Amino acid sequence: MSNSSVETREFQTEIRQLLDIVINSLYTEREIFLRELISNAADAMEKVRYLQLSGQEVKDRDLPLEISLETDDNAHTLTIIDAGIGMTKEELVENLGTIAHSGSKEFIKLLTQGDNKDLNLIGQFGVGFYAAFMAADKVELYTRSYQPDAQSYVWTSEGTGSYQIEEGPELARGTKIVLHLKENAYEFSSPEAIKRVIRQYSSFVPYPISVNGEKVNTVQALWTKNKSEITEEEYTEFYKFIANAYDEPLFRLHFSSDAPLSLNTLLFVPQENFEKFGFGRLEPGVSVYCKKVLIQEKSKEILPEWLRFVKGVVDSEELPLNISRETMQDSALIAKINRVVTGRFLKFLNEQAASEPEKYKGFWEKFGMFIKEGAATDFTHKQELVKLLRFESSAADKGELISLADYVGRMKEGQSAIYYVNGPTREAIEAGPYLEVFRKQDFEVIYTHEPVDDYILNMLGEFEGKKLVSADQADLDVGQGPEIEGAGLPAAEVEGLNAWVKEVLGEQVTEVRESKRLVDSPAIALSAYGTYSMQRVMQMTNRDLNAPAPSVLELNTAHSMIQKLNELRKLNDPFARTAAEQIFENARIAAGLIVDPREMVKRLNQILEKALG
Ligand code: ADP
Ligand code: MG
Asked: How far apart are CA 613 and CA 602, in angstroms?
């Protein structure tokens, strides 16, 4: 090996940022570096196992799949050896020099900006291989790919800006990592310390681990054990292992069944939802086993996509051991397991919601987006999913959430439907005109804030036999009662006023009519096509100021402003037209629609001019 073959390369910016955090800020529970390296070794061997199963040619076929650790107290080194798939030169550059996942990149950027370094979050996110630099000031990695004619390489770095790659001595398949420990991390060259850390963090690794030749783990399949024989700590450690997490799970469901399927299932809900942080779409987190043998890691088929936040294991004796990834997709048995486990998990969530409502609320705030996704897309489980939805409402205090069942349970006598209204915030909804008629009738109204809420409720149509009705529906019938009608203008006047306003507003309205739903507001704008919620979303995404969809305008003829407008228009005063246009514009603003500010400012100036005399 000549010196000229040594290649020095720069780390990608995001990795340099990550290394900076790892080395300078992330020192609590430093021993987790060992967990990361062991988990990488196990992953690499899992890949070998899979290649062999699928009949591919693999170098050193008979090499046992195990992880060996060696300590050297004098040289202050710790060495970790695996018989995994190893890496080619290209893979070394790709895997240890760059971060490909754009979500992770964004996340690191976010975390390293300014003062908002949330170290706890970084810890939970996991720094992977780079955790090695928590304990080592120099890392040498020898590796040889499983590919039969691959060359061995040595990768070296001191965790600063760059790393070196050179051709290495002939090796057996796999990877050997030599950590040159920092002075304050010498403890990790003691076999006792290493064994303790392995027992704590890696007891569920499904391959044998040895320290200086002595085997230290027993491969455990926790999910097949009896619940009463498992401690809380074991559950938590298992969760941390399979989820590659640093937190404690929020929920845990462990169940076994014989009928309709023989199943051993252990599922967890994590503490945090990284997808919500903008980390990118979560990968599924549940692995499939048959009698403790791993069939498929992080399976896409075993649970519906909207349950991708769940971590855990599903073990079924009925699965054929040699099932391939392709046949998983259209296996009727997998589909059946999926249905059973999903149903059981939703039942569990509903039970949790009933027994621990506060905790469920915490779950909802973080993971509600997945439940909504399910409710909007999964017809099979719709009934159970809908029960899990939570909403703000006019009858609930700010911050309190209700279910559809809560709503139905306290509906007023004579109230036939469940009402909901969409708006960006509670305050915006309550300031608008849409609630007036409901306040008058003392009917509760659900507040929705996202288009998906309205989509779900609209699709659902009814709940427990009660129709679901959007409060901004143009043909709303709340049984408004005659009192409001009585206070308005006489019928002949109303007719004239409506026709005149329609003439002033032209194409912008399809209809002008007297309102039966207003109390305090002079006018209300309603969608000419169904409800505004969807229109509002479309307008917002298109930023479309020029072609707003036409409205139905309802006038509150009991309101003094409307009555004065009626007088003024009879005098043929041109200011009446300006006022009518502004009343319409105000109603559209209250509907949350974007109006053209330039036109409006011009008009408001005219109005001010007049008001100031
Ligand atoms: P992650 O394990 O989440 O992918 P890491 O930072 O731990 O992230 O590792 C980055 C990548 O480096 C891995 O995805 C893998 O491709 C490669 N790698 C790390 N350690 C090993 C190893 N012991 N054997 C083979 N490949 C490895
Ligand atoms: Mg890793």
From this structure: 17
